[in-house]
Design goal:
Blueprint: E1 5-7, H1 13-16, E2 23-25, H2 34-40, E3 44-50, H3 59-68, E4 70-81, H4 86-93, H5 115-122, E5 127-136, H6 145-150, H7 153-160, E6 167-176
Parallel strand pairs: 1-2, 3-4
Antiparallel strand pairs: 4-6, 5-6
């Protein structure tokens, strides 16, 4: 496959050159950023935003820009952290919304998504979810183990009763709504149990 990358951090460009020479230095928070790509590239079979949209001021606008880059049979693949994970409830119970260098509370996240928000985002600009996968993790095996351990046992039991309590991340593949038969409704899915 041919990879085209978009990067805003000049220090990351040398790392990207190991996988592609086709790199656009663009700010995804800028309006009409996709225009520069559309002028230089053919439409794409896949546009991938893996752990990107939670860092943007307007992720819905970014979805519109990504859709404009799709080939007729193309799709958008998103990977988003789930703020409804039970470990976040433990942080809130502990009065410690602990921003970190990575993970669910990465200090560079400026947007947070629950299951319904992820559905709405994936369906923005006439897209529909064709496929979805859940990345599950028990709260004791996250970056918030200490907060989880401090949470009273009865509250941990209650927190884990929520259907999406162990969903750490959601990966979706969306296509234009007009190509969709039966769209996936994330709220109707049952996530796998954590190992």
């Amino acid at each position: 496959c041919t990879v085209v990358a978009i990067e805003n951090d000049p220090t990351a460009i040398p790392l990207l050159r190991e996988v592609t020479q086709r790199i656009f230095e663009l700010d995804l928070n800028a309006s009409r950023w996709a225009d520069a790509i559309a002028l230089a590239e053919e439409p794409f079979d896949y546009v991938v935003a893996a752990d990107v949209l939670e860092h943007l001021v307007d992720p819905v606008a970014a979805m519109g820009e990504m859709r404009s880059l799709l080939a007729p049979r193309g799709s958008i693949i998103l990977s988003l952290p789930h703020i409804g994970h039970a470990a976040i409830a433990a942080c809130l119970w502990d009065d410690d919304f602990a921003y970190q260098d990575w993970g669910l509370l990465d200090r560079t996240h400026i947007r947070f998504f629950g299951i319904k928000n992820i559905q709405e985002l994936a369906c923005a600009h006439g897209m529909a979810i064709e496929e979805a996968r859940f990345v599950v993790r028990h709260p004791a095996y996250t970056e918030f183990t200490a907060q989880w351990d401090r949470m009273p046992f009865y509250l941990r039991i209650m927190a884990l009763r929520r259907r999406f309590a162990t969903v750490y991340q959601i990966v979706t593949r969306s296509i234009p709504h007009e190509r969709m038969g039966n769209a996936v409704d994330l709220m109707s899915l049952v996530p796998p149990r954590p190992k």
